[in-house]
Amino acid sequence: MILRIDNLVKHYGPVRAVDGLSLEIGEGEVLGLVGESGSGKSTVGKCVLRLTEPTAGTIELNGRDITHLSRRAMRPLRRDVHMVFQDPYSSLNPRFTIERIVGEPLLRHKLADRRETSRRVAEMLEKVGLRQEMRSRFPHELSGGQRQRVGLARALILEPKLVVADEPVSALDVSVQASVLNLITDLQRDMGFSCLFITHDLSVVEFLADRIAVMYLGKLVESGPTKEIFAQPRHPYTQALLSAAPVADPVTQRERRRIVLGGDVPSPVDPPSGCRFHTRCPLAYDECRTVEPALQDPRGSGHPAACHLVTADRVPDAAATR
Amino acid sequence: MTDTMAPPLRRARMWRRFRRRPMPMTGLVLVIGFILLALVGPLVTGDPAAQDYLATLAPPSAAHPMGTDDLGRDAFARIAHGAQVSLQAGVLSTALAMAVGIPIGLVAGFYRRWLDPIVMRLVDVTLAFPFLVFAVGLAAILGPSLRGVVLALGFSQLPAVIRITRGEVLAIREMDYVAAAVADGAGDGHIIFRYVLPNCASPLIVQATVAIPAAIIGEATLSFLGLGVQPPTPSWGVMLTTAQQYLGDAPWLAIWPGVMIALATLGFNLLGDGLRDVLDPRSGP
Q: Is-above-0.90 flag for pTM?
């Protein structure tokens, strides 16, 4: 396992951003972590990089517990994990050239002198599809898509074992999104890094992720192989998310039943009792309001869901109530 | 340093945007004129202390373009030498405030959990302290002098510099590029000097253009009250003190230093407004 998160909790004051989350990522595996804004998915990413201090739980990187390592002790381990940020405008230092930005990880870890850094930056820029004349440019001279490629180059130059990508394409135009996604897919196949891909958009990870984990209000509600999640979602929330994504075939699209969730995501300051999703779930019944369902996998198929209605021979259908 | 500077392209674009506007350009011309007067003026004018008893309180003439004062000293020579004092007071006190205030603001903002509350309460205390009382006290200890003026003015600017720096740091430390630097394995010192400091330079440059004219007025005020530069050294404030006795007979003695103070202050303020617009990336292409 490259990454193992066990019962992670992160509270910001009264806000329970992440409230007991466990997940694992194997070597070369891409895990899509999906959730609405406010579900705590970005916080998970920040905890993995120790950009924020976890409240409880453990995080193991490469078999080593990094949950409470000091900044100094953490430093050598940062070679193995880097991050791609969501906002291409605030993730690059406006005062550095592209060459400097991409070369910084090498220089900080003293892995190369200036000359060697320059050579490897050139190599990396080529890999992410940026022309060499970009090296002397400053971030503000680049487009959003180009900046995101720079962020990718910076994250990959140390050839890390794990890359945390926090909504790396959601700030981009749709056409640019596709090209950056393809680039990430190619680079992942090429370099073989594991990836925690955080997104609010299931369709973004459909062809990239090996497995998908769905988050709601700081907890996992379902996880499993991508194909299975798309073919047979078990949790009513996942079903609702999938029904909201448009399908390319107009006939199918017209015949589909959409599950429209009422209301907003409840406040993570005071999450609902019982199942956190019961306030918006079309299938909720009495037990859901009082008893919190555990993530369980009654069929033992590596596809657990946290819903009382999931049993060995039955899967709830949120669309059936309409 | 070169790798943290704006590229020539960007600077050229800023300059073009700046040049097109009349107010900032007026400010720039006034400031350059003021600096030239302070640097070159004393070389071309005569001795500001030379007295001509045959021409006391003389109106402006070919020999004395700005007239003379009660001791027959050339007002233009005194204005030029006074400009030097004003420039020194303005620049030195601002430099002092920046040199002390920026590091304090940087660490307060960066280590906001444990240092910030202490620093900010000290700043509040400083703000509550009446400036003139402080200046009088300092003059009493050091004796009235330019050094005392610079110290008093520098100290009075300190809270603003600390507050501005700290505010910028608080905003910048939340930027993703700072998080990325942590992920790169950068230490605090590297992050502060390479990521945070260069990115909070713009508002500080603007602050300097506000602080310098305030210090020029401050120097004139203190010298006017006899707490600053001492006669016979010419200063615009000292000249005003003398002039008030002869307001009826020789009004130009009050008008020249008054106009000079107004122009120098106006120049810096217009320049500052222009720089604020150009340096703020949200204000244009």
A: no
